[in-house]
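Q: Start with the shorter request: fold the first protein.
A: Done. Sequence, then structure:
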Amino acid sequence: MWSDLAAHAVTHVYLAGSALLLALVAGIPLGIASALLRPLRSPALALAGIGRTLPSLAVLMLLLPMLGVGSAPAIVALALLAAPPILIAVDAGIRAVPAAALDAALGMGMRPSQTFGRVVVPLALPVAFSGVRTAATETIASATLATFVGAGGLGDLIVRGMQTGDTVALISGAATVALLALAVELALGRAAVRIEARA
């Protein structure tokens, strides 16, 4: 039983971690572009808002005709769900940087790239990181749906337990998902405290 649970947990973490990585790669540049390029802001935030309202299972099913079954549609769907909170938080964090800080950097003769790297990024990081934190916990929870496209993970145990009346499988799968989400939340919460202290 324990080896089965561990194997499903490893698959679950792989799916959630891969999706979060993809979401970071897409969400951070889009958030930066949204904050710095005014014409892009409204469509980017509108798209992110739509992405946040879409049901996770619906996104998975929509990707099935294009990507088939397995890990690929699960990772892409989870990344699509994780990217919006990252994009929104990065945009909000950059736009919340005080104008006085930017003026001070300009007065010190910093170039735009220096201002961005030395002033904007450190001051925006606490807010931007909150989006990563939200995306991470949501991705771990939503990864249970990957079982419906044959990607495995802890959702397999939960669904198997429901279908067969196997209470042990049901509870062990659900509890492990909850523990994983809690562990990630605690770890990222500690990281957020350190980031805020440095900012």
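Q: Next, the second protein, separately.
A: Sequence, then structure:
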Amino acid sequence: MVVDQMSEAELDRLFQALADATRRDIVRRVTVGEYSVSGLAALYAMSFAAVQKHVAVLERASLVAKEKRGREQIVRGNHDGLEKARWLLDEYEAIWRQRAERIADILAEG
């Protein structure tokens, strides 16, 4: 299970990163194509430094990767990090479905 393979700190970083609407939007954009940090900053009504902090949070959660190209920092989606998030949510959904099925079985017996 992915849940067992991730530390509590990793889980916290992942969900904290996805808890913010701007960060989710950045993830959506960089999974479609690469953006420079300055290009991302132009899309939001916040400072360059604020966007840089959002990107850093996403990078620590392994949801995006950043590399320096010349004078720019290029951000792209990190497939492995996104896949971990998907597996994690799939596992939570499976646990929830098993509980719902057990409750339905108990009610059917009663």
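Q: Describe the second briefly.
A: The chain has a mean pLDDT of 93. The first helix runs from residue 2 to 5.
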